[in-house]
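Problem 12. The chain below contains 48 residues. Write out its predicted structure in token notation.
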Amino acid sequence: MLIKFKIQADIRSADLINLYQAVGWYAYTASPDSLQQAIHHSLDVISA
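Solution.
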């Protein structure tokens, strides 16, 4: 299986919420706007 990695901070809010809820990090999903802003202002965001 080929995994493509991307370096980008433009991740849809719904995708972030689903990811964080899938791993049980519910405290971060209480404020989707803050979560989106934190990801956007991170130095590096790597997704696959």
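Discussion. The chain has one domain: 6-47. Students who got a different answer should revisit the alignment rule from Section 12.3.
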